[in-house]
Amino acid sequence: MSILSGVSSFFGLDIGTTAVRLVELKNTGQTKTLMKYAYVPVDIKLSQSDSKADQQKLASLIANLVNEANVDTKNVAVGLPSSRVFTTVADVDRLPENELGKAIMYQADSLIPTPPAESKIDWALIGDSPKDKTKCEILLSSVPNKFIEERLDLVESIGLNVVAFEPENLALPRALVPAGATLPQLVLDIGQTGTDLVISMGEAPRLTRFIPTGVEAIIRSAQQNLNIDDKQAQQFVYKFGVSKEKLEGQVYQAIISTVDLLVNEIDKSIKFFQTRYPDTKIERIIVTGGAATIPEFPLYLANKFGINVEIGNAWRNVAFAADRQNELLAISNQFSVAVGLAERSE
């Protein structure tokens, strides 16, 4: 969902559930250099609301952020929440590219959950199908026209020029996966209300899922099972996490069933991926988002799956002054989508 041709500069805008974030990078040869970044917290009720008044409040909040960040361009690549986007990998007949587009639109009814006439559909050719050598593999995304139009109105109402819309889960691996990685990488962005799961291989996402379990559900488990208030539950989860030793394992016992709900969904995704690509093995799990800082959570995943787990660094492919390292790493787990959007190819 891109109209990037001829655009020399733009910034990435992530309109998240609990914050709005922006990143502007400058192309300097092989690397991209950080120019500006900024964020502002947002009330969940505001970010999730479809009401006109709330949309206007959100627009003015974004306008203030853009002004304060003093970005050098009005062009913007905007993230689309994965909960609103359907993305799949599909096999289609091998055809010349100009005919392939028509064939995909013809088959769209059977590939996407919403009526094609009411959806914005975008696709990219990945390569040969791993299942059927007479077919090729495509990545297909669709999003309801109504949502795209509302988001476009919101962003254009503050004087910005949208050069691309991109599902958040497609922006994530661009920021987090090591350049040149050929083996499959599983990226987990565990946000407030849900989790984005992406398995990418050779620079192309091969499986994407939105799992409606996030940090909020884990905190709610602690709150209910330990009979404490929300604020205390947050403190306990971020202090003791999935440790069986700390606080006699009480927090562990309180949250583990919810953590395992998420782990079971990750397991299903890995198994589904392995059935489609039986000759490949996932090299690492990269964790970002709120749960990346829950003590022993990454270790719990590593033990469950027997796969190396690392905490994602959103700035891994970005150049910046050495004295900014601590400041940027402290917020890295919140900026993967915004950085990935800013790293799009022009």
Summarize the structure.
The protein has 346 residues and is an alpha/beta fold. Helices cover 38% and strands 29% of the residues. It folds into two domains: 150 residues, ATPase, nucleotide binding domain (Nucleotidyltransferase, domain 5), CATH 3.30.420.40; 133 residues, Nucleotidyltransferase, domain 5 (2-Layer Sandwich), CATH 3.30.420.
Task: List the topology elements.
Layout: E1 11-15, E2 19-28, E3 31-41, H1 44-48, H2 52-69, E4 75-80, E5 86-93, H3 97-111, E6 119-128, E7 135-144, H4 145-156, E8 161-167, H5 168-176, E9 185-190, E10 195-201, E11 204-211, H6 215-226, H7 230-240, H8 250-276, E12 284-289, H9 297-305, E13 308-311, E14 318-319, H10 325-331, H11 336-342
Parallel strand pairs: 1-4, 3-14, 4-8, 9-12, 12-13
Antiparallel strand pairs: 1-2, 2-3, 5-7, 6-7, 9-10, 10-11
**Total domain units:** 2
**What class do helices, strands and sheet pairing give?**
alpha/beta
What percent of the residues sit in helical stretches (DSSP H or I)? 25-40%
Oligomer: single chain
Percent strand equals: 25-35%
Number of alpha- plus pi-helical segments: 11
The fourth-level CATH homologous superfamily of the largest domain is: ATPase, nucleotide binding domain
Task: Describe the main β-sheet briefly.
Answer: 6 strands, mixed
User: According to CATH, what is the class of the largest domain?
Assistant: Alpha Beta
Number of strands: 14
Order of helices and strands: EEEHHEEHEEHEHEEEHHHEHEEHH
Q: Low-confidence parts lasting 5 or more residues at pLDDT below 50? A: 2-6
CATH topology of the largest domain: Nucleotidyltransferase, domain 5
Radius of gyration: 20 Å
What does the overall shape look like? Answer: globular
CATH architecture of the largest domain: 2-Layer Sandwich
Q: What is the end-to-end distance?
A: 13 Å
Mean pLDDT: 92
Going across the biggest sheet, name each strand in turn.
8-4-1-2-3-14
